[in-house]
Model the fold of this input.
Amino acid sequence: MRIEVLISSAVIIPTAPPAVSGVGAIATFTGTVRGEENGHPITALVYEAYQPMAETVMHRLLVELAAAHSCHSVFVQHRIGVVPVGEAAIHITVQARHRAPAFAVLAAFMDRLKQDVPIWKTDTLPA
Done:
């Protein structure tokens, strides 16, 4: 399985991956910053990461998930720094032969990301 992980402060612009022979499912998830956090209006979230470790842990998780679910590729982008309301904090694309493994990798990765990866929402900017 091809795995790409990118953590940066660059704005995430979700794009469709190129067509790949044998791929019948492309599952994507984009997590955006909503206008409230813990019941309070905000204008942005601030994300921090221990980047080398976060990239290593993400890659390890995806290798582990690939052993359980047959996928062609996974591309993960996670933004750090100030992320304004309405903008993407994370975007994931999973390509697989069938939808079930694509959805399984996507859902399991998001669950494990929040538990295992050293990326934190460190602050909110009030509205």
